[in-house]
């Protein structure tokens, strides 16, 4: 396994103090209720959960929302936030100028993000433009596509060096031995979130990119599709599968086309977003006197705090 990983703690989804699932009206359309408060008139809907997860990359979002425990944890978090917000309203905590400014800024942040997302949707380069970019990049930078010998692998990871972790990886190994699909087991059970979202795939990597224990287990596999017995690394317990072997040389265009097109799209969208932000940043006139007065006031407060 590579020398970094992403942990996941499911314990926050232990229990939900909510009523049964129902249906409510949100924005004029029906949205399924997944959490309904007992004492506070707050409901968390599917729309709320999807909105909360919208900031995640698609593959990470789909992976997280395919697990009922993670959905419950997200819904519980949203419910707690909404319930406490209702209590804040009861206490009139939103009435001060600072509170109003914070609420306004939170709304502005969401609206700015929506505008930038809309730029991505409406002004992204066409497929034809991206293909042309990929072809040009491949032709002009041949050295970039020369690679050493690499292997492609997938794995299942159970974090930790505990009897429970070892027991769990052995259970998953027995499921594989009975014919279970490796990718589906990784998707549902691996605690390496990044690769789990890709059904366990780690992609291609060269010798020396993984910790020694991982490479030793992978090197012992000779046939594509073969998988190891459970083994331990500093990250926890693994099962690794050999997916492909690629000799050193220049990658064919068809193999890098999708990645190049995606890179071109990301770069183009970044330019669009940066230009929009820069244009807005230039369309203002600072009030130097007000800025200096605020700085002086806070320097005075800092000095007073220092003297205490």
UniProtKB/TrEMBL annotation:
Residues 1-31 form the signal peptide. One of its GO terms (molecular function) is peptidyl-prolyl cis-trans isomerase activity. Its EC number is 5.2.1.8. The keyword Lipid metabolism does not apply. Residues 148-244 form the PpiC domain. Keywords: Isomerase, Rotamase, Signal. It catalyses: [protein]-peptidylproline (omega=180) = [protein]-peptidylproline (omega=0). Belongs to the PpiC/parvulin rotamase family. This is peptidylprolyl isomerase. It comes from Lampropedia puyangensis.
